[in-house]
# Entry
Amino acid sequence: MDKVCKFAGEKERGNRMINIYTAVEKIPQSLTILENINEKFDVVFSPDMLDEIDLNFMKKIDEAEFIDKQIGTIKTKFGVTNYTELSTGCKTAIYTNHILKSGSERKYCINANNCGGNALKLMFSAFKDKSLFFLLEHPVRCTDIFDRKVCVNGEEVNYKEFFVDFEKYLAG
# Structure
């Protein structure tokens, strides 16, 4: 049986919480794992598809902004490059935004193993009232969201507890 968090008022508002699974075998069978985001992003997304939320993710996660959106040239703190060179965390945040826009968020568990704390913090904050599912097989320090409630392998906890006692959630 799939383990998911049941929250007060869930029937009225749905499970609107970040759901984290610490191993592939703990992910409900009803979800498809979205893997290889780095490669999929490069094939699926063109610069003209990116909205203001995506541009904000680019700026805050990778300190990147478009120089020429038509050809996909961006400027980062490291220099000028193509938008396909964004970090995997930034690409994951953008991909997640588009999953939400398409209304298919309850179909996917997003592999967030390659996301840094800055990308996770922004996603968890930007999408705090959404139902999202993430695979996260290692602890990621996100001190700014330590007080946030998350669902880990079907158990509601605050993020700090998850971070500090991560080994408990791997075993459980």
Notes: The chain is about 35% helix and 20% strand.
